[in-house]
Predict the structure.
Amino acid sequence: MRVPMRRPGALAAAAAIAATAVAGCDSGGDDTIKIGSIAGLTGNFVTTDVVETAKQVFEDVNAAGGINGSQVEYIVKDDAGNPQRTAQVARELLDSDVVAMAGSASFTDCDVNGGFYNQARISSVMAIGASPKCFQSPNIAPVNVGPFTLMTAVLQYASEQLDAQRVCNFTVVLPGSEDAVNQALGRWSELTGKELVVNDLTVQQSGDMTPYLLRAKQERCDAVLFNPTEQLVVPWLQAASTQGMTDVDFLLLAPSYTDSVAEAASGLGLNVYAGSEFEPYTAESQANQEWRETVQRAESPATAFSQGGYLSATFMVEVLKTIEGEITRESVNQALRGMEPIEHPMLGTPWVFGEGESHAPNQASKIVRLEDGQWKVVTPDFITLPRD
Amino acid sequence: MLELSAAIAGLVTGGAYALMGLSILLTYRLVAVVNFAQAAVGAFGAFAMVLLVEQGLPLWLAVLAGLGVGAAVHALVGLIMVRWFSGAGEGIKTAVTVAVYTSFIALGLRLFGAQHPHRFPKPFDTPAFTLGNVVVTWMAVITLLLAGLFAIVPVLLLRHTRIGVLLRALAERPQTAELIGIPVPRLAMAVWAITGAASALAIMIIAGQFASDFGSQALLITPALAAALVGAFRSFPLTLVGGMALGILQSVASTWSEIKEYRGVLPFVAILIVLVWSRRKERWDEFA
């Protein structure tokens, strides 16, 4: 928790920030490559681990001599999960001449700023894209799988690997994402030739979850997909446990794949599965090693989100290194659009920005299962969905 | 059949709404303030309890401490009311509690973290019986009993005890009460503290069923106010009935495909219907 500053302290801090800003301008110019990022450092949706890890990647690059001799200046702006702030900080970043965005993790960034990025001709390599707009913009390419592709992947795992016969879906639809959810569900039907027994897209974020579970029980669902926020998943699982649904496979998405959910939901006696955005962060695998070392250096918690921060910054650095001559917004755009796909062991499909009106390069996920209060990987290989 | 199961499941939510509604009514009847911040105050107490449990404190001690926090926070709101707004009208006092509510939300999110869930202890989460395919837990039974208690005890207290008479005087004619020698500020502060502890208890019991973040808990104020409104901000038994009915209605609504999307707005619909009904005999076309 931050201790409120006393007035003289606040003044000194303001002066220090102003001085840094001035110094930044002076020492800027051709020597510095400015990269921007929008994340939630306060408010309802906090993603500090994303930007701390991305920052560490850039610091490591700077320590090793920078990119073609230039240092990276990483400017992170807090949008506090507030759309007005999201719009405002994007304009502040562009005013301070950032050449690209990397490591952004804000729920509202794509919806609020997608058009603006297009207009201002700036590209964003997003760490965590969550709304459909993040996967439909010519200027944004997230490194994560995203909730919609993940939904298809998790359902496919249940119906094909767990041999679930009666698959049901209960989804909280966020504003603007109904089409994307329907597409994801339709894609699963196309891939498997199966239909959902229950498809309820009217689940509310508030109130008791028991009525939905009673419906699942009555319809004899043997696999139930639910896409809640972290706060809602524990009451959901607790209610399921109370209703004795121990023979049902509960399928969750990446927001539920966290240590705190594992801890809070342990001992309920349920079969709980979740899709991971990347190589599962809880796996002590070779693929995760460099990321894990980076997170430790950044003194930030190791989370799936921080993997997104690491990968987006790493990919940005690789692309920047290919640019010959001056690094500007335009040359970064060109480099991203003309880049060769990057293979990374933390991803199941190569990551590429590329040409095109929309970008969803990551189409692969692994599945983790809750066992004794810990997430264990149950799919050694990535489940890769065929491209549309 | 599913409707019946949902209705039975809704009893628990209804009990929760009723508990919170009764806490609000208690504050209103005793100190004449419609307190929009009351669920947020309760959430402070409940989150203090869950943090202490996570630190390894025995549950009963943590619950006591949580009740203390609820009492202290509500007493603070009371202090503001008694000090600066004792002479103000009901409208102004209510507006102040709305301001307090928004600041409590911001403070609560900051103090108790927004993103990671806490697992609220549910010591009585073992099945009591199965009714219509629904497993009813002891927790549900206790919630209902407690809601009944919250509805009956204040009525007995206000009608049949000396302190009840003093409290009624305090709520209805605070200045007259002070003139005849009732220690109004001290009594009012005690009332604020006790209703704060009651709200904390209500939220502690019901928190585990709902989204476990501070914001969602504080938002329980809406159905609770709807319940209190059914009781016309006077009747404890009717508030109990209002809360129960709202919980059952919301639960059953989630099984009706035509209206289940609108489950969240049912408290507002209830408020609207009650307001129109209770004002049906008033004449709207007269100048004041």
